[in-house]
């Protein structure tokens, strides 16, 4: 590394580490790479996204960090999962073997070529012109070897094409696996794992925020009466309403089954409760068609529990409080927000 490059790297690292500490970013290799690139300002899109998130959160939640790293630093070709790693190793071994065979064939051809020229040189040095009968075997040998090389080249070309197709398939597979690690496949919302990571970070950072839990009322009844596909349609419909509410740093998650959660940064219990009530009304107005007969099914409602982060809260205490409020809403008759 050149001296200037080393000095630049050291300067970037000195800038990156304090920022990571300030925004409560865990010291992992991926996070170092992300923040080093941020202070280096070589990817404007990355800086813009980080700045927008920090404006809303003042911290960088793990779910966002993982997406930023994947989209801007690692790229979809970075294979860090064991099954894909094995596939890539097998692919490299196969191509390497083909290349080795091709190189061996080329070396053999060079050897034959050298021997043929040596034979011609010997005949010329004997001060007599070689006859056609003497030259033809040498030419035929060269032609045969050239054909072998051509076949070998065709083979390696096909192998490389197959390898290229396989790499494209693996990249697509990796993108799906990485997406599944953060998102719920049915609703496309962030999943429980992403929720756990994000809420833990907010609590560790003692960041002002509120938490909303919501649960679809009588969901089992809809499943039993209309079938699980209809139930899936309800889940998707409510997820769309939640996505529409995700502005100003708000993030929605499928917590599990028919239960959802929203993390609302820098908002009080009063504001979060107002938002929950607006969502409750939006869900109440939903109508979904029964695929069997096309009739519209209404009366879909949800109950909400809201809690605000307070000094001394942990992940568990905050979740327990929001969950208790949700239980109170169910017990009070459903289709309502608690605390009232």
From TrEMBL:
<dbReference type="GO" id="GO:0043709">
    <property type="term" value="P:cell adhesion involved in single-species biofilm formation"/>
</dbReference>
<dbReference type="InterPro" id="IPR000160">
    <property type="entry name" value="GGDEF_dom"/>
</dbReference>
<dbReference type="InterPro" id="IPR043128">
    <property type="entry name" value="Rev_trsase/Diguanyl_cyclase"/>
</dbReference>
<dbReference type="InterPro" id="IPR050469">
    <property type="entry name" value="Diguanylate_Cyclase"/>
</dbReference>
<dbReference type="Pfam" id="PF00990">
    <property type="entry name" value="GGDEF"/>
</dbReference>
<dbReference type="GO" id="GO:0052621">
    <property type="term" value="F:diguanylate cyclase activity"/>
</dbReference>
<dbReference type="GO" id="GO:0005886">
    <property type="term" value="C:plasma membrane"/>
</dbReference>
<protein>
    <recommendedName>
        <fullName>diguanylate cyclase</fullName>
        <ecNumber>2.7.7.65</ecNumber>
    </recommendedName>
</protein>
<dbReference type="InterPro" id="IPR029787">
    <property type="entry name" value="Nucleotide_cyclase"/>
</dbReference>
<dbReference type="GO" id="GO:1902201">
    <property type="term" value="P:negative regulation of bacterial-type flagellum-dependent cell motility"/>
</dbReference>
């Amino acid at each position: 590394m050149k001296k200037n490059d080393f000095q630049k790297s050291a300067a970037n690292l000195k800038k990156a580490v304090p920022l990571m500490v300030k925004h409560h970013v865990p010291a992992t290799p991926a996070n170092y790479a992300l923040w080093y690139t941020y202070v280096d300002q070589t990817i404007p899109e990355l800086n813009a996204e980080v700045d927008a998130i920090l404006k809303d959160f003042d911290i960088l939640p793990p779910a966002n960090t993982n997406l930023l790293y994947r989209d801007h630093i690692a790229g979809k070709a970075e294979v860090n999962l064991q099954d894909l790693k094995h596939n890539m190793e097998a692919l490299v071994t196969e191509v390497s073997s083909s290349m080795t065979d091709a190189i061996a064939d080329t070396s053999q051809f060079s050897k034959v070529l050298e021997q043929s020229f040596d034979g011609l040189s010997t005949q010329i040095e004997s001060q007599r012109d070689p006859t056609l009968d003497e030259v033809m075997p040498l030419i035929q040998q060269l032609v045969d070897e050239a054909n072998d090389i051509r076949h070998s080249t065709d083979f390696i070309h096909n192998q490389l094409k197959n390898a290229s197709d396989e790499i494209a398939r693996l990249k697509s597979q990796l993108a799906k696996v990485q997406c599944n690690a953060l998102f719920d496949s049915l609703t496309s919302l962030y999943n429980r794992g992403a929720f756990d990571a994000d809420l833990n970070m907010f609590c560790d950072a003692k960041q002002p925020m509120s938490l909303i839990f919501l649960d679809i009322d009588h969901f089992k009844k809809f499943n039993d009466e209309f079938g699980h596909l209809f139930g899936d349609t309800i889940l998707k419909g409510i997820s769309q309403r939640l996505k529409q509410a995700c502005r100003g740093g708000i993030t929605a998650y499928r917590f599990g089954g028919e239960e959802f959660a929203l993390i609302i940064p820098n908002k009080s219990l009063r504001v979060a409760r107002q938002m929950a009530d607006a969502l409750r009304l939006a869900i109440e107005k939903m109508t979904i068609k029964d695929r069997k007969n096309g009739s519209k099914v209404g009366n879909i409602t949800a109950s909400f529990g809201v809690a605000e982060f307070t000094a001394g809260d942990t992940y568990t205490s905050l979740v327990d409080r929001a969950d208790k409020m949700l239980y109170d809403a169910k017990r009070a008759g459903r289709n309502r927000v608690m605390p009232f």
